[in-house]
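Why should sequence recovery work at all? Because a backbone constrains its sequence more than one might expect. Tight turns favour small or flexible residues, buried strands favour hydrophobic ones, and helices have their own preferences. The token representation captures these environments compactly. In the example below, the structure is given first.
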């Protein structure tokens, strides 16, 4: 490649990564196609011209991250260390936000689950390419923890269309779920699920305070599922300790189905806190996620 081509690649990379311009804006400025812009950006990263790094209050444990990625065949794996356990959630969500900003491209569609940790990602997002944002599961818990609020906040950064899901995470019976699924707004959101290219999902541990699903059920239902071997959930899809799916809520949950979730090219799971060690292992064993951002305590325990 000649110096003119290298100069153009460097200029495209600068416009995109440092000046925050979109691929379309760069293509119009330089009189080239947006597909060429995308290729040049990919080559800039592949050649080492551009290095994408995640900076957070803690740091990335490279050895643990690499071991996680290899053991579970992940696209991305980050084990985040933090000197203060109180900063753990902030460090993990900051790392996730920066990962999201580095992997998204124009026209991607972001899917989001619900969860307290997940909700804090938006605090760290500064710029995103134009992307629609779709809520993957119904609402549970406080307004600041539900997927609808996160969809709104991320779409404000991306400038894309928000597709909320105004329905409970878990309903009382299959008949109620079917009735809600007939609502036009809910159908419109469901129709976007096959278009999702990057999803953010939580890891729920089967214990009080560590799962939105757990908190949505009666004591009797919790005991029944515990006896049935439930260890974890993600997107309200129940799993045993080996990552096998347990179908107990399939006709009562509102959200993306397992097959559609598995078809998403990039599914990033978040997990923090020792109470989620077994659940994180189960979610990884399930094969439903392709990336993980977690704290070093969970990472070390999973690999131990």
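From this structural description, the recovered sequence reads:
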């Amino acid at each position: 490649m000649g110096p003119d081509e290298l100069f153009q690649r460097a200029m495209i990379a600068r416009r995109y990564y440092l000046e925050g311009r979109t691929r379309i804006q760069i293509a119009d400025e330089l009189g080239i196609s947006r597909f060429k812009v995308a290729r040049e950006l990919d080559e800039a990263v592949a050649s080492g011209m551009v290095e994408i790094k995640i900076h957070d209050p803690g740091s990335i444990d490279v050895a643990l991250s690499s071991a996680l990625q290899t053991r579970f065949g992940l696209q991305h794996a980050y084990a985040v260390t933090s000197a203060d356990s109180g900063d753990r959630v902030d460090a993990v969500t900051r790392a996730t936000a920066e990962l999201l900003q580095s992997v998204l491209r124009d026209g991607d569609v972001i899917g989001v689950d619900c969860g307290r940790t997940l909700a804090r990602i938006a605090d760290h997002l500064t710029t995103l390419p134009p992307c629609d944002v779709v809520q993957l599961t119904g609402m549970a818990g406080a307004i600041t923890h539900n997927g609808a609020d996160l969809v709104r906040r991320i779409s404000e950064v991306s400038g894309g269309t928000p597709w909320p899901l105004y329905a409970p995470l878990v309903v009382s019976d299959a008949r109620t779920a079917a009735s809600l699924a007939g609502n036009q707004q809910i159908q419109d959101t469901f129709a976007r699920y096959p278009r999702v290219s990057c999803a953010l999902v939580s890891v729920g541990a089967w214990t009080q305070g560590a799962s939105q699903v757990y908190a949505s059920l009666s004591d009797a239902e919790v005991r029944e599922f515990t006896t049935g071997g439930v260890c974890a959930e993600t997107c309200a899809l129940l799993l045993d300790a080996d990552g096998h799916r347990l179908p107990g809520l399939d006709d009562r949950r509102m959200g993306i189905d397992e097959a559609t979730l598995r078809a998403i090219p990039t599914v990033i799971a978040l997990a923090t806190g020792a109470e989620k060690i077994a659940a994180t292992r189960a979610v990884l064993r399930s094969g439903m996620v392709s990336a993980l951002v977690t704290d070093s305590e969970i990472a070390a325990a999973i690999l131990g």
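A few observations help interpret the result. The domain at 59-303 is CATH 3.40.50.1360 (Rossmann fold).
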